[in-house]
């Protein structure tokens, strides 16, 4: 699709998100850093390397890593950057940053302001977002079922994916009621304390789950469970019941129920959740009324993925 059509398409979605609270299927921003470790999940899944691995891999191209470090710096800053600012924020040497910005401008991925000489990301990068948007089978399979779930419960529902030791919101339908936590597509939460993260962890191979749990576990609220033994017990309970309940562990006033989504090989590939405010819902009521809807939706998405070739 031409870039102008892709830009218009994504802009239309952004407008509907802001004005109507309609479906949110824009791809996450480019925010996964080169240093992040995305552990393999499922057969044939790719992962990013740990820094130590990259340093010893003869096939690793350091100039490509530097290029993405520069792009990530612009993405994090969310404003035009001078060459000096880019070198300071990214840690790149001035000569490397100068060559990279020049090349990216020639290729059309950066624009330089004629007066200030500052650089900014160009709309050409949206081509990658659009390609991810239209080819992601998980989003495609989840969209109609998640929308139906949102209409059935009238509460916020999300599809989340695992990236490194975080979960990322990749599809979101907001509640028709006022919400206490207003997240957006691309938002991230630690895997260990989020309902969706635990729903994925519970069905990962044990060694992989343990690797992720061994990472930093900083409490986000006074209710956050950080003890390793307690977390293992929560994951075991999730496998017995088929879903996870999270009571204000990521945000005060937020109750979240999450269930895993499986690919055609039967391996966990994502999670969906329903998020509700504690003043309006109790844990008992949420489990009674929302858990059956959540599990039904997760099964339907998994069944659709199993039928895709």
From TrEMBL:
<dbReference type="InterPro" id="IPR014757">
    <property type="entry name" value="Tscrpt_reg_IclR_C"/>
</dbReference>
<dbReference type="GO" id="GO:0045892">
    <property type="term" value="P:negative regulation of DNA-templated transcription"/>
</dbReference>
<dbReference type="Pfam" id="PF01614">
    <property type="entry name" value="IclR_C"/>
</dbReference>
<feature type="domain" description="IclR-ED">
    <location>
        <begin position="124"/>
        <end position="307"/>
    </location>
</feature>
<dbReference type="Pfam" id="PF09339">
    <property type="entry name" value="HTH_IclR"/>
</dbReference>
<protein>
    <submittedName>
        <fullName>IclR family transcriptional regulator</fullName>
    </submittedName>
</protein>
<dbReference type="GO" id="GO:0003700">
    <property type="term" value="F:DNA-binding transcription factor activity"/>
</dbReference>
<keyword id="KW-0238">DNA-binding</keyword>
<keyword id="KW-0805">Transcription regulation</keyword>
<dbReference type="InterPro" id="IPR036390">
    <property type="entry name" value="WH_DNA-bd_sf"/>
</dbReference>
<keyword id="KW-0804">Transcription</keyword>
<dbReference type="InterPro" id="IPR036388">
    <property type="entry name" value="WH-like_DNA-bd_sf"/>
</dbReference>
<feature type="domain" description="HTH iclR-type">
    <location>
        <begin position="61"/>
        <end position="123"/>
    </location>
</feature>
<dbReference type="InterPro" id="IPR005471">
    <property type="entry name" value="Tscrpt_reg_IclR_N"/>
</dbReference>
<dbReference type="InterPro" id="IPR050707">
    <property type="entry name" value="HTH_MetabolicPath_Reg"/>
</dbReference>
<dbReference type="InterPro" id="IPR029016">
    <property type="entry name" value="GAF-like_dom_sf"/>
</dbReference>
<dbReference type="GO" id="GO:0003677">
    <property type="term" value="F:DNA binding"/>
</dbReference>
